[in-house]
Write a structure and sequence with these properties.
Elements (H helix, E strand, L loop, with lengths): L1 H23 L3 H12 L6 H14 L3 H15 L8 H8 L11 H17 L3 H10 L4 E4 L7 E4 L4 H13 L3 H10 L10 H6 L2 E7 L4 E4 L6 E4 L2 H4 L6 E4 L2 E2 L12 H6 L8 H26 L2 H23 L14 E7 L4 E8 L6 E9 L5 E6 L9 H11 L1
Parallel strand pairs: 3-11
Antiparallel strand pairs: 1-2, 3-8, 4-5, 6-7, 6-9, 9-10
Helix pairs in contact: 1-2, 2-3, 3-4, 4-6, 6-7, 6-8, 7-8, 8-9, 13-14
Length: about 400
């Protein structure tokens, strides 16, 4: 049974890896085809495959599919008891990868954020507000690296805080909007200006770069995140040309978050002591096995047999614990490093707009983009090396605005 399960899991994993490669190569249609059947399987990777599918379909501007994928993941992420009973016991005794994947805190925040963004793009500001609020869940702040006790603290997830304020503003609740603008990081004070956002009639939300990857230590038991912000270098700022003229952002085009930095923050990590304990106990059993084995080799008679049998048992137990203490390195590989939220005010009508990152080949041009007479129209862009033209879904969205 274990061999059959392993083969099935390996086949699904290979299919998911193909989808991830297709995404990075800019073939969003192929990535969608690979992920759609995986996202329907109600197994331990249900949430992970749905958020992967949500990333791909959102980048392709298939908003219906993206909403369905993120909503499916959202319902499991925000449910309780999913990993109770057999799955939790199996994770302790066998492998924690059989637990239903819910992601690190920053991955859960991003799933809620994307769902809220889709609602906001559709001007469904009440549902957007609810999703952005769910992205701002309380964090666990530990006293030190070895402490088990923690206190709950407010989230510092700035993009959701900013978009929550904008949602309240569009709902006509200026009191709640202003209160949430005040909570946005002081480094983004210029961007969190109520008057600036009230005047905005064109909003771009732009994903840049890639989130950190999980890494393990020498025995595969501990998880870290790489690269660090210092290793990756500073985040460049985008420029926007509208009808050939650069939009004067000033300090408004600052990144709202750096997921590389967030992943290094203990408050944004899921500290799972089970695998650390298993690895430590396994090491202890191996040491005990060596000691008993030496005693047995130096002994004789019944005592020798007993010592060697004990050594064999300790060796088997130690190897089992070490083998099953491997870290769960499943992750949402398609997340960006950073998110830019760019509110603009431009003349209503038809425009050509180019978003680029100076010093790189990242750029995307949107032609015949329609800015309405009233309200705020919102567009999402996923910046990638191979995609310089907008996806057909985005072109259609702009056409729908004109109608």
């Amino acid at each position: 049974m274990m061999l059959i399960t392993g083969c099935a899991a390996s086949k699904d994993q290979q299919q998911a890896e193909r989808a991830i490669m297709d995404f990075h190569a800019g073939d969003l249609a192929a990535a969608t085809r690979e992920l759609q059947p995986l996202a329907k399987k109600t197994n331990e990777n249900f949430v992970l495959n749905n958020v992967r599918l949500g990333s791909v379909t959102l980048a392709a501007y298939n908003l219906d599919d993206a909403e369905n994928a993120f909503l499916a993941a959202y319902e499991v992420i925000n449910s309780t008891g999913v990993n109770n009973g057999g799955r939790t016991l199996g994770a302790v005794l066998v492998d924690e990868k059989i637990k239903v994947w819910k992601g690190e805190p920053y991955e859960r925040a991003m799933a809620n954020f994307y769902l809220g963004l889709i609602y906001y793009m559709r001007q469904d500001y009440n549902n957007a507000r609810a999703a952005f609020e769910n992205a701002l869940f309380k964090l666990r702040d530990y006293a030190d690296e070895k402490a088990k006790d923690f206190k709950e603290v407010e989230s510092n997830f700035a993009p959701a805080q900013l978009m929550l304020a904008k949602s309240f503003q569009r709902l006509g609740r200026d009191d709640l909007a202003n209160a949430n603008f005040e909570k946005v990081s002081p480094a983004l004070r210029a961007l969190a200006n109520p008057e600036l956002n009230a005047r905005s009639n064109l909003l771009f939300v732009i994903d840049y770069g890639y989130a950190p990857r999980k890494i393990t230590d020498f025995d595969g038991a501990m998880v870290g995140f790489a690269p660090t912000p210092m290793e990756a270098g500073p985040i460049p700022r985008p420029s926007v040309q509208i009808d050939g003229a650069f939009y004067p952002f000033g300090d408004l085009n600052a990144p709202t978050v750096d997921l590389l930095a967030l992943a290094q923050d203990r408050r944004w990590q899921s500290i799972d002591t089970i695998r650390t304990l298993k690895s430590a106990v396994g090491t202890g059993l191996l040491i005990g096995s060596a000691i008993e084995g030496m005693r047995g080799l130096n002994g004789s008679g019944a005592r020798q047999r007993t010592d060697l049998m004990v050594a064999g048992g300790l060796l088997a137990g130690g190897l089992l614990l070490k083998a099953t203490s491997q870290a769960d390195t499943r992750q949402w590989e398609l997340l960006p490093r950073s998110i830019f939220v760019l509110p603009m005010h431009v003349a209503p009508g038809q425009h050509e707009l180019t978003v680029s990152f100076p010093g790189s080949d990242l750029h995307q041009t949107l032609r015949n983009l329609i800015v309405p007479e009233s309200g705020e129209t919102t567009y999402y862009l996923r910046m990638q090396r191979w995609n310089h033209e907008p996806p057909p879904g985005l072109v259609q969205a702009s056409t729908d605005q004109s109608n």
